[in-house]
Amino acid sequence: MRINKYISETGFCSRRETNRLIAAGRITINGQVCEKGADVEPEDIVLIDGEEIPFNDSEPVYLALNKPMGIVCTAAEQVKGNIIQYVNYPSRIFAIGRLDKASEGLILLTNDGDIVNKMMRSEHNHEKEYVVTVDKPVTDEFLQAMSQGVEILNVVTKPCEVYKQSEEVFRIILTQGLNLQIRRMCKALGYRVLKLERIRIMNITLDQLERGEWRHLEKQELENLLSMLN
């Protein structure tokens, strides 16, 4: 089993966070510093910072957080304002995906490594919806360009749905998650993002959550989410 999958299934952290631990040289397999893409056999001894990984035998946890600006989506304890310390949940959880430090809105957290892996696979085309405020009026030309795809990071973004909400505010529904995608798309078209809020991930919405508050997913919305992932 690949090391990323092995660690995510323990509930310790996500596959993406595992890559950061590997890059930092914090994971060892049988006493040897782990390399990216390493395989793990059942008899192997895997340690993080010299300690055994506690397997997650607690009840599955699924949270929705209305993230404020300034909170960093990482489980790294040394990072000031990290999301795990902010939520301060009594058992180990980690964020599903990312929402950059300057952005706010909906992000999901869990101790279920399987759901993280399914949601992070971009080929599933899971929708995420944002409300974006920019520094000048939103034009029809801008909306058309955003919806058709913008060249950033040496690729053209996938076509998406974009709607004007007010003079300098638009809504956008993405099915991919490139690094700082919306900010880079706007910049390429001569706009600067002043505020970026995620309001929906698939069937999960902020649902009147105040900024900084979190809630457990309700049974029905969790069942719907899981069915969409299968």
Descriptive account of the structure:
The protein is of the alpha+beta class. It contains 7 helices and 15 strands. The strands form 3 sheets. Strands 5, 6, 7, 8, 11, 12, 13, 14 and 15 form a 9-stranded mixed β-sheet that branches. It has a 4-stranded antiparallel β-sheet with strand order 2-1-3-4, with no helix packed on it. α1 (3-10) crosses α2. The model has no long low-confidence stretch (mean pLDDT 90).
For this entry, give a set of tags.
single chain; about 230 residues; alpha+beta; nine-stranded mixed beta sheet; four-stranded antiparallel beta sheet; about 25% strand
Fraction of residues in β-strands: 25-35%
Percentage of residues assigned to helices:
25-40%
* Element-by-element helix/strand order: HHEEEEEHEEHEHEEEEHEEEH
Report the strand count.
Answer: 15
Oligomerization category of the chains in this entry: single chain
Structural class: alpha+beta
- Major sheet: size, sense and barrel closure? 9 strands, mixed
| Cα radius of gyration in angstroms | 19 Å
> Taking all residues together, what is the mean pLDDT?
90
Number of helices: 7
Show unreliable segments. Answer: none
User: What's the shape?
Assistant: globular
Termini Cα gap: 21 Å
